[in-house]
Amino acid sequence: MKTFKLGNQHIPAIGFGTWKLTSIVCTDSVKMALDIGYRHIDTADIYGNHKEVGIALKNSGLKREDLFLTSKVWYTNLKREKVIDCAKRNLDELQTNYMNLYLIHWPNRNIDIRETVEALEELKRENLIMDWGVSNFNEHHIKDCVDFGFKPINNQVEFHPSFYQRDLKQFADDNNILLTAYSPLGQGYDLNLPEIIELSSKYGKSAAQIILNWISSKNIVVIPKATIYEPIKENFESLNFTIEQEDLNKIDDIKINKRLLEPDFSDFNY
Ligand SMILES: NC(=O)c1ccc[n+]([C@@H]2O[C@H](COP(=O)([O-])OP(=O)(O)OC[C@H]3O[C@@H](n4cnc5c(N)ncnc54)[C@H](OP(=O)(O)O)[C@@H]3O)[C@@H](O)[C@H]2O)c1
Prior knowledge:
Blueprint: E1 3-6, E2 9-12, E3 16-17, H1 23-36, E4 40-42, H2 50-60, E5 68-73, H3 80-94, E6 101-104, H4 113-125, E7 132-135, H5 139-147, E8 154-158, H6 166-174, E9 178-182, H7 194-203, H8 207-216, E10 221-222, H9 229-236, H10 245-252
Helix pairs in contact: 1-2, 1-9, 2-3, 3-4, 7-8
Bound molecules: NADP nicotinamide-adenine-dinucleotide phosphate (NAP).
NADP nicotinamide-adenine-dinucleotide phosphate is lined by residues 17-19, 42, 105, 135-136, 156, 182-188, 191, 206, 208, 223-228, 231, 234-235, 261.
């Protein structure tokens, strides 16, 4: 399985996204993903599905050390006590004694980032998390961390053909930060882009496979979400072929630049 180095760990290059998966559907989809071969699951406190994910992990019969588990602490819970309480509650819900990666879900400039990072470092010292990172951080948010002597090793951001965050990727490379692409399929919309459809027919691969392969070719982790067996399997099999450079460039050159997720509290344009 393709992996990327992340601090002292190896993170599987493809993970299974779980946003909007709840109840028994979530347990079934995560269990299907694990049976197919995924070893990396992406969840978050705000998704409200930790218990269902935990049941699927348990039912899979897989050893904990063979799994990579990412969760996230919500932006309103970034004060020290809340970070610690959330992490401990999340571990109970997931029925595990550590998370491989714990991310600050969104930046919150009303809470001193030092306080949050110090809490995360404390969790790390106690082996409750193996490492921490950030999500939805732009260059200026990361600079805030760096100014205080902390550098996240991972930034999970929106990234797909119609929202190719070229500058943020360059900044991540320059600072040795691994990116994870969320909404890698553009929540389904990018599957219909003409450039993707053309390459899908040229390579005999699905539109989703072309997109995930393109993102992975940039050494970015992908975490597509799907609910039923066929797309879950199809996505998992997206990294085992090679797209020629000139075709990768065609996707790079797509002119649309449309962010899908920009909640009121987001702070992208600061
Ligand atoms: N850090 C953050 O703030 C943040 C934000 C957003 C997402 N995320 C993470 O990233 C994960 C993925 O993002 P996402 O869920 O927004 O969107 P996505 O993975 O880009 O797209 C999911 C949509 O595409 C469909 N789909 C999946 N595979 C397909 C295939 N092979 N063929 C056709 N359709 C397919 C899914 O179908 P179904 O409807 O059948 O499932 C769903 O409608 C999330 O689940 C979450 O874990 C993180």
